[in-house]
């Protein structure tokens, strides 16, 4: 039976959000014959989430036992993944019921595509949802489109969390890059230089906005310029290698 591995890096202080993420997974409507596992990797020196995940029989929990950061923790989860596809779900976000099925269907219908990005609504307190327009036309995303957009605009045109990827493609690129910021953007840029992707036309991901969100912390701007420089350097290196092939 084909398997999809949902990867979540978790923090002890977000137990309530993590439960909501698990409930959104329990409501998934998978294509016939498919199943999923929820690979949760807790980041931090004092593991605290095993009991929180006990009500979810599809959860496979482990803990770092130290603080490693999002990218490294996600890579540890990737090591534990048994699925032919992986899907990224942050511990404070939620999926709509068709999220996994939509991505699975695209990857089955488009064997040339290695990754699927989704549309998302911002999720605020009280379940208030606000949409934002996509930066790319939904459908097949040709090779190099994401990188060119990043060079032209300085930010990503697709939601980097909520990504569904063929597991072999992620592993071939070494997983998520050890950057202080933009570890997921660096992966998506590299993926799209090597393979086409696909942007879903429908909203399937709820991206939570809250005061404890990592990107809203005062420290977030620090090291962001260096991280974006690393993304551009990776893109330039990939294109130079391709030109010389």
TrEMBL record:
Entry-linked InterPro entries: Glyco_trans_2-like, Glycosyltransf_2, Nucleotide-diphossugar_trans
KW Nuclease (keyword) present: no
GO molecular function, one term: glycosyltransferase activity
SUPFAM superfamilies the record matches: Nucleotide-diphospho-sugar transferases
Gene3D superfamilies named among the record's database cross-references: Spore Coat Polysaccharide Biosynthesis Protein SpsA, Chain A
Glycosyltransferase 2-like domain residues: 15-120
Keywords associated with the record: Glycosyltransferase, Transferase
Protein biosynthesis keyword on record: no
Protein family (similarity comment): Belongs to the glycosyltransferase 2 family.
Name this protein carries in UniProt: Glycosyltransferase family 2 protein
Source organism of this protein record: Umezawaea endophytica
């Amino acid at each position: 039976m084909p398997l999809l591995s949902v990867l979540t890096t978790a923090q002890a202080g977000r137990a309530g959000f993590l439960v909501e993420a698990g409930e959104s997974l329990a409501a998934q409507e998978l294509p016939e014959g498919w199943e999923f596992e929820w690979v949760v990797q807790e980041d931090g020196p004092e593991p605290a989430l095993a009991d929180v995940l006990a009500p979810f029989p599809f959860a496979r929990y482990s803990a770092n036992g130290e603080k490693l950061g999002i990218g490294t923790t996600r890579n540890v989860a990737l090591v534990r993944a048994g699925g032919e596809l992986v899907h990224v779900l942050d511990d404070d976000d939620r999926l709509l019921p068709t999220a996994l099925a939509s991505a699975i269907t695209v990857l089955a219908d488009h064997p040339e595509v290695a990754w699927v990005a989704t549309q998302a609504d911002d999720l605020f307190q009280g379940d208030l949802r606000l949409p934002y327009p996509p930066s790319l036309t939904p459908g097949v995303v040709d090779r190099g489109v994401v990188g060119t957009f990043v060079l032209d605009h300085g930010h990503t045109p697709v939601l980097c969390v909520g990504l569904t990827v063929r597991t072999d493609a992620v592993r071939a690129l070494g997983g998520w890059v050890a950057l202080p910021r933009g570890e997921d953007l660096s992966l998506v840029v590299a993926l799209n230089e090597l393979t086409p992707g696909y942007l879903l036309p429908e909203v399937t991901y709820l991206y939570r906005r809250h005061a404890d969100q990592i990107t809203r912390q005062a420290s977030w701007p620090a090291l962001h310029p260096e991280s974006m420089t690393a993304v551009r350097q990776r893109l330039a290196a990939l294109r130079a290698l391709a030109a010389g092939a």
